[in-house]
Design brief:
Length: 269
């Protein structure tokens, strides 16, 4: 049996173990996915512990995705361009970093008919961490991206650092209650919503709302958006499912049993 871990802080709430262990069971693979609560000081040691024969790799979540890029032996071109890693794959004694958040988010903002939900739009991206970088990477080639973060300097860093096909995000102030958003869509790539917050409380919603917070319960932002007229809503479980499927394939070399993974989630994705 080999193990796969999720490194983050906190991680007790994660839905990833249920998905991945259902996938292993569906394919008859004798592996196990476990969470490990790892703080900032412990990340380097946790990554070093993966270099064992009984480990396939790990996922990395808040707050470690950008730091993890500096701890791997090599990274995919996509992960280097994004500047963040969410998947670690052991290849013998070497550790490879990948970013499956990119595929997960790209799938989440693709309609059932294969058309993009967001193209030629002005998108307000909330957050400037590793997940936000992956979202911006997907959005920038075909949309104007405004990035806002509660720590403004981080939004400015993302805008400076991330260049996708000659396109960059623009750093803007965090929206205030009562303010009309100058955007066609909003993507919440912060942790706001994990503990019952609505990051846009008191602010009218645009025509598309994407909340990537992956919770068992619907987040307040998604609930409000679903109760609004003419608003297209994307729930965080959709991105979670598709990034997980790609990570599974990188670890095992087998096609992910997406139906089994979806069935392990608490609601449709």
């Amino acid at each position: 049996m080999a193990r796969v871990y999720l490194f983050g802080h906190p991680v007790a709430h994660s839905l990833s173990p249920a998905m991945h262990n259902a996938a292993f069971a569906a394919l008859g693979l004798p592996h196990k996915y476990e969470t490990r609560d790892v703080d900032v000081k412990g990340l380097a040691s946790a990554v070093a512990d993966l270099r064992r024969d009984d480990v396939l790799g790990a996922n990395v979540t808040i707050p470690h995705k950008e730091t993890a890029l500096r701890l791997v032996d090599d990274a995919t071109a996509e992960a280097r361009e994004v500047g963040a890693v969410n998947t670690l794959i052991r290849r013998g004694s070497r550790m490879l970093g990948a970013n499956t958040d990119v595929e997960g988010f790209a799938r989440a903002v693709t309609a059932a008919d294969g058309s993009p939900l967001l193209s030629g739009a002005t998108v307000l991206l909330l957050g400037a961490g590793g997940a936000a970088r992956a979202c911006a990477y997907v959005l920038l080639p075909t949309n104007r991206v405004l990035v806002a973060n509660r720590t403004a300097a981080r939004a400015e860093d993302l805008a400076r650092a991330l260049d996708v096909e000659g396109h960059r995000a623009e750093a803007v102030p965090w929206p205030r209650a009562g303010q009309e958003l100058a955007a066609d869509a909003v993507v919440n790539a912060t942790a706001l919503g994990m503990n019952g917050e609505d990051p846009l409380e008191g602010i009218p919603l645009p025509r598309v709302v994407v909340d990537i917070v992956p919770k068992s319960e619907v987040t307040p932002l998604v609930r409000r958006a679903r109760g609004s007229e003419n608003v297209v809503v994307v729930d965080g479980l959709t991105m979670l499912l598709h990034q997980a499927a790609r990570s599974f394939e990188l670890w095992t070399g087998a096609p992910a049993p997406v139906a089994a993974m979806r069935a392990a989630l608490p609601r449709p994705a």
